[in-house]
Each structure stands twice: as structure tokens, then as C-alpha cells.
Amino acid sequence: MNISLRTRLILSFLVTIVVTVSIVVLFANIITRRRFTYMVSANGERLARRVAPTFTAYYERIGSWQGIEELLAVYQRWSQKQSPPNPELDNVPSDLFRDDRLLLLDRGGKIIADSAPNEAPVKLPAGSLEKGTAIIVNGHRVGTVIVVSALGELNQWQAAFLRQVTNLLLGIGGIITIVGFIVSSFQAQRILAPIQALSVAAHRIATGDLSQRLPITSDDELGEMAGSFNTMAAGLEEQAELRHRAMADIAHELRTPLSILQIELESLEDGLIEPTTEVIVGLQGEVVHLGQLVNDLRMLSLTDAGELHLVRQPVKLGNFVREITARVAVQMHEAGLTLKTVLPSASLTVSGDYRRLTQILLNLLSNAITHTPAGGTITVTLRQVAEERAVISVADTGVGIPEADLPHIFERFYQVKAARNRAGTGLGLSIARSLAVAHGGQLWATSAVGEGSIFTLGLPLVAEPASSG
């Protein structure tokens, strides 16, 4: 049998409340009964001490306990207003034993008189004499007067009082249980409402509706859960959008070179064009572009899976920057750009894969060249920013990146609108950042529209290798 979570929560709350209330009622009843019995017993002992002088006077006058039963019977009727007062009882309040049973024991501890002889006989437990008051005449103990309540025996009124207390505690416990059930039902509904909403939203997301969001109605764990779900859903929606755009971009990137190849090859096949060097070079260029796209996708898949193998070696960053900038110097000159390098006098060394580091810096330089108009300047700066960290920055005086696009430029296939028509796969910066992270470094960018951009690569430094010789 499947029990709903709501039912289980309510039952859990209810069981907890019932057990707690039962324990409280039980202990409260035990404590009340013990305390009340103790008070009744103490009161019985006091009553015995108050009536003892009357019995002492009776024994002194008669010289024995003969006829004491008649005195108790007269008292019983008198205390119940059924007969006129007796001189023997002038000093005893009329309500002293109205609800108490009186016993008179002889010097041997045997009951010789009972104010309620028609009721069940009283069995005296051990130590009963200590609960009574001794009757002393001429220095001798001639008897003991005991009030039955002093022995812990409750009369009908006292027992009725305890029953009323017990019923009251049970009634209060029942009310608390009912209120607890109502409150637990409300709390269970309050707890489960966000969970049910989460379940519905998750099901809809599973069916493809990524626009689902949960309302955040509290600041507790449930609110935190709703916020986390919304963040996850937003991320999924954003990733779906990126994937959709990526597929469109990939299809576009593949369609163009494939179309060119198809047209050119069909033209060659039909004899419409001659297989000249220029035609073959053009076809080769399209094949190279396709190969670059495939390699970029493979690179990203390797970094995602953590399977990219780095051949680490000590790399002196000063020499590294000089070599890479020298490789693009001709291209920059042809583009009408000025190249500047700022290098420190101290030698800075990192542990890295020289080929992958080259890929990062060439990508940054290629972006700078592409987005900087003729007459602009590209500055490559190497500096140490902390005891164990160095940065390489590539600053250009190009068009800059809009503020809305800046947080997304490292996402896959993301291209600023102004650059969408330019050559490229939109994967270069994403690959560069992945390679930087694989080296234990960072890659970030700052930019201002119309002023240019600065891309910065941060890498951890290592100690200079010891020179041999």
C-alpha cells in the first residue's frame, strides 16, 4: 500500500504529539496523585492529633475503651447534623471528620473502634502506628487514634477529585492532539506545496518546457530549494538556447564550405571550370576550414571530459611572448597595425604545455587583429602580479565589446552581433579559457565600446629550473 508523503508527515507529527502529550499527562497525573496523597496523609495525621485529646479525656473519665463505639456513632451522626452535640465533642469542630474515617487501636495495635463499621475492614500496613497519634494516660500508652486518610487511603470525595483531575488532563491532552492534528495538516500542506510545485515543474521541464519557474514564498530551506531550481532551470534554458544556436552556427559553418566544395566539384565534373591552381587552393582552404571546426569541437569535448593531456615543461614567459608576437608581426604589418610588447626584466617561468599556451596567445592575438581597424595598436604586456602569479594581457584599440555581450564571450559559439559575419567558429575563446583552466590559470576580459578590449591570461609561476654545469 502506497502512503502519500502528506499522510506520512501528518502521521509523524501526530504520533509525536500523541506520544509527547501522553507522557506529559502520565507524569502530570502521577505527580498530582502522589502530591495529593501526601497532602491527604499529612492532613490525616494533623486531624488525628487534633482529636486525640477527646479520646484521652474519654479514657480518663471511663478508665477503659468500653462504649467508645457509641461515642464514634454519636460523632458520626453529629458531624452529619443528624443528632444534637455530645458533651464529649464540645472541643471538636463539627466538620473535622465529615469525610474521614476514624480508627481507634488499643495498646496492642488492634482495631477496637471504627467510625464506619459498615464499610470494608481496613487492613493496617506495617508502620501504621507511626501515622497515628498515641493516647497517653498517666504516662502509659493506652491506644492510638488513626485517620484512615493518613495511611494513603482516599475517601470517595478525594478519589473523585483525582478522577476529575485525570479526566481534565485527558481532556486537555485530547484538545492538544486535535489542535496538533490541525496544525500538522496545515504544516504538511505548507511543506508539500512547494515540493508538489517542484514535481510538476520538473515534469514539464522533462517534457521540454524549460520556461518553468517556482515562486519563492519564504526565506527558509523551501525558498532556497525553489531558488536553486529556478537557477537550474534558467541554466538549462540558457544551455538549450546556446545548443540551438550552436547547432545553427555549426550547420551554417559547415554549409558554406560544403556548398562551395559541392559547386566547385560539380563545375569541375561538368567541365565548366578548369582545375587550375587557384581553384584547387580555394578547395583546399574550405577543407582546412572544415578541419579547423572539427578540431575545435574535438578540443572542447576533451576538456569537458577532463581527458586533455598536457605535456608540461618549464616555459619562460618572456621568451614565449617574444616568439609568439614575432609569428604575427608580418600579419599585423599587413593589416596596418602597430605591435608593442612590454616585458619585465626578471625572468618569469611557468609549468605548461608550450603548444597549448601558444594556442591561447595566438587566439587572443588573432581576435585583436580581427577587431582592430587599420592604424590601431595591439599591446602585449607580461608582468608579475603576485609572488606566485604572472599575467599576459593583450590590449587592442579596436571596436570594443558591448557590456551586454561581455559576460558571454567565453561561451561556445557565442559571437558578438557585430562579428557574426566574420570568419570563425565562435569556439576560439571558449577553447582558450578551457586551456587556461587546465593549466591552473584564468582568462578574463575587460572592454569599452569604441576604446578597445583587454584580454588577460593569469598563470601560476614555478621556481626557475636549476642550470646545469
Describe the protein's architecture and organization.
This protein is of the alpha+beta class and 469 residues long. It has 3 domains: 5-157, no CATH class; 221-305, Helix Hairpins, CATH 1.10.287; 312-460, Histidine kinase-like ATPase, C-terminal domain (Heat Shock Protein 90). 53% of the residues lie in helices and 15% in strands. The protein has a 5-stranded mixed β-sheet with strand order 6-8-9-11-10. It has a 4-stranded antiparallel β-sheet with strand order 2-1-4-3. A hairpin with a 2-residue loop joins strand 8 (377-386) and strand 9.
User: Could you estimate the helical fraction of the residues in percent?
Assistant: 40-55%
Rounded to the nearest angstrom, the distance between the terminal CA atoms is: 82 Å
Q: State the major sheet.
A: 5 strands, mixed
Number of DSSP-assigned strands = 11
Low-confidence stretches: 93-97
Side-by-side strand order of the widest sheet: 6-8-9-11-10
- Rg, rounded, reads 51 Å
Q: Report strand %.
A: 15-25%
The coarse silhouette is: rod-shaped
Number of helices: 8
Q: Give me the secondary-structure category.
A: alpha+beta
**Helix and strand sequence:** HHEEEEHHHEHEEHEEHEE
Number of domains: 3
Q: Kindly state the mean pLDDT as a whole number?
A: 81
